[in-house]
């Protein structure tokens, strides 16, 4: 009889290398916000993969970057804390890297510090020649003894089982920590907040998105006249400047309507029922350095 295995796997890497895309591919469900902007992920998000002989709990961490605010410090701290607490680390880099940069070297030092069992994942291999890829692998192998090196394109499903099979090989026997029907440990409230934030990240100008956070004020399940279940959700988008508030609302409220519409559509798909979403925008100037708010993003 095959022994059941389980374990926690941290995905770590610099900002914008494709960690959220990778975790969503591996889990097969959308558990992490994706946008073509740095610092999309702010906290450690767990995605759960249930296989016939194993349960793998993935932790998608904030990208490693130079902190500018208390929030940034908390994000980086969360990433490195999750390495210590995991059984295996997936270290994600881009194939287009010319050399090992400071950020990646910093991650390698942390891996050495923790003597962490690590699989190197090289993303975006479709953008480089084979010769460059081989040179890059050699450079990284000189720096750390990886359990395996897997070149991938995170947008292609064919790599999913290759990565999962490799992870399973290195897991120890253990129980299923979560129900086999679950694919994330985020609450519906957290998923709603992340969905709204992702749509704002997609639609807003560069300087605005990372100065926002979302807070759900009300989340209530009821039945409408047709006896259908519907979520009434009220959310506030907080930003750091009055000028940003104007951009988020947009002319005649058009931008806020777009954010709300896209978020509502995705929530209805994810929750499997109707959503009545109302959003407001408020200014909270110093929240990026406010411990009581920033603590929300710490690894729990």
Explain what you see.
This protein is an alpha/beta fold and 300 residues long. It folds into two domains: 5-173, P-loop containing nucleotide triphosphate hydrolases (Rossmann fold), CATH 3.40.50.300; 188-297, 2-Layer Sandwich (GMP Synthetase, Chain A, domain 3). Helices cover 36% and strands 24% of the residues. It contains nine helices and ten strands. The protein has helices at 19-27, 70-84, 102-113, 130-143, 160-170, 188-203, 242-249, 254-271, 291-294; strands at residues 5-12, 45-51, 54-60, 88-94, 118-123, 148-151, 172-173, 213-223, 229-239, 274-283. The strands form two sheets. Strands 1, 2, 3, 4, 5, 6 and 7 form a seven-stranded mixed sheet that branches. A three-stranded mixed sheet has the order 8-9-10. Strand 8 (213-223) and strand 9 form a beta hairpin. It is globular and about 60 Å long. Residues 33-43 and 64-76 have low confidence and may be disordered.
Topology:
Elements (H helix, E strand, L loop, with lengths): L4 E8 L6 H9 L17 E7 L2 E7 L9 H15 L3 E7 L7 H12 L4 E6 L6 H14 L4 E4 L8 H11 L1 E2 L14 H16 L9 E11 L5 E11 L2 H8 L4 H18 L2 E10 L7 H4 L6
Parallel strand pairs: 1-3, 1-4, 4-5, 5-6, 9-10
Antiparallel strand pairs: 1-7, 2-3, 8-9
Helix pairs in contact: 6-8
């Amino acid at each position: 009889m095959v022994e059941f295995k389980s374990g926690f796997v941290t995905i770590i890497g610099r900002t914008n290398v494709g960690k959220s895309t990778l975790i969503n591919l591996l889990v097969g469900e959308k558990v992490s916000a994706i946008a073509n902007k740095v610092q999309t992920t702010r906290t450690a998000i767990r995605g759960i993969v249930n296989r016939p002989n194993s349960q793998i709990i993935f932790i998608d961490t904030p990208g490693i970057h130079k902190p500018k605010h208390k929030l940034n410090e908390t994000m980086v701290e969360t990433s490195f804390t999750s390495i210590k607490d995991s059984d295996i680390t997936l270290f994600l880099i881009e194939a287009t890297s010319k050399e090992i940069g400071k950020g990646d070297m910093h991650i390698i030092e942390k891996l050495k510090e923790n003597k962490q069992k690590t699989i190197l994942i090289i993303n975006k291999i479709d953008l480089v020649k084979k010769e460059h890829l081989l040179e890059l692998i050699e450079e990284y192998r000189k720096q750390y003894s990886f359990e395996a090196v897997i070149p991938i394109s995170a947008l292609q499903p064919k790599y999913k089982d290759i990565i999962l099979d490799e992870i399973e090989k290195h897991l120890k026997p253990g129980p299923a920590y979560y129900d086999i029907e679950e694919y994330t440990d985020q609450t519906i409230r957290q998923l709603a907040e992340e969905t709204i934030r992702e749509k704002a990240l997609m639609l807003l100008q560069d300087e605005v998105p990372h100065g926002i956070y979302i807070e759900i004020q009300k989340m209530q399940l009821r039945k409408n006249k047709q006896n259908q279940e519907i979520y009434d959700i009220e959310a506030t988008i907080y930003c750091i400047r009055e000028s940003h508030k104007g951009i988020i609302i947009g002319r005649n409220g058009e931008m806020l309507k777009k954010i709300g519409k896209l978020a509502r559509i995705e929530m209805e798909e994810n929750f499997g029922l109707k959503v009545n979403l109302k959003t407001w925008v408020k200014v909270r100037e110093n929240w990026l350095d406010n411990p009581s708010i920033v603590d929300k993003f710490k690894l729990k």
